[in-house]
């Protein structure tokens, strides 16, 4: 019996969820932030989003 969720072997849905989370985080910085407009808005959005990504 598993003691916690990060014990090996990982469930396939865990792997998919982590891959999707990382892909969406990557897409945010590469595809969304450059098109926001002014540099100030880019820094504000990155400053708000980065702690959320790091926390989860």
Could you outline the blueprint of secondary structure elements for this entry?
Elements: H1 12-32, H2 39-55
Transmembrane segments: 12-36
Keywords: Membrane, Transmembrane, Transmembrane helix
Query: Average pLDDT, to the nearest integer?
Result: 91
DSSP strand tally: 0
Question: How many domains in all?
Answer: 1
Low-confidence parts, pLDDT < 50 over ≥5 residues?
Answer: none
What value does the Rg take, in angstroms? 16 Å
Work out the helicity level. 55-70%
Given helix and strand content, the structural type is mainly alpha
End-to-end Cα distance: 25 Å
Keywords: Membrane, Transmembrane, Transmembrane helix
Explain this structure to me?
With 56 residues, this protein is mainly alpha-helical. It has one domain. The chain is 68% helix and 0% strand. The protein has two helices and no strands.
Q: What is this structure, in a nutshell?
A:
The chain is mainly alpha-helical. It is 68% helix and 0% strand.
